[in-house]
Amino acid sequence: MKFLSAFVSAMLLAFIGGVALIWGGAYNVAADREHIRIAKWILGTAMINSVKAHADAALPPAGFDTEEHVREGFRLFDEMCVQCHGAPGKQAGEVGLGLRPEPPELSEVAGRWRPAELLWIVKHGIIATGMPAFGSTHTERELWDLVAFVRKLPGMSPGEYKTFAQGAGAPHEHGPHEHQHGH
Hints:
This protein is mainly α. It has a domain of about 120 residues: Cytochrome c-like domain (Cytochrome Bc1 Complex, Chain D, domain 2, Orthogonal Bundle). It is built from nine helices and no strands. It is elongated and about 65 Å long.
């Protein structure tokens, strides 16, 4: 019984301390500062579990990953995403470099998500990350096209990305700064 009482007291004190930290403004939310480890964990865990819980099990439309859809997805990615996320051989632009938490490089993380989860992310966005919701500005087909391209990013080399961009007639071929991959 003493253990349970001590545990409840410790949890209550932690809760009160957390509320005081937040309410008093002591936690620095500046985008040019790193979050403390526990804040990163809380936000990251909440985001991952929320996406998995809210992304429906909708299957992608038949043929969503055909060359036509992937090329249209590249056009959308080049317009809307590369500035923050970068791409193989391309560093994120100024806006992306200034965001906290830093937007993930999708070539490294897209393979962790099911197509329905990627769709949910681009459709609804992620609060407090800078990831906008594109569901009100783009059609469902456009969003699936974007997902089709993003799913091609893992394993794509900088040379393959550049060749793909040239073949797709990318409007921002010389936009975000080129960089050597392999940080």
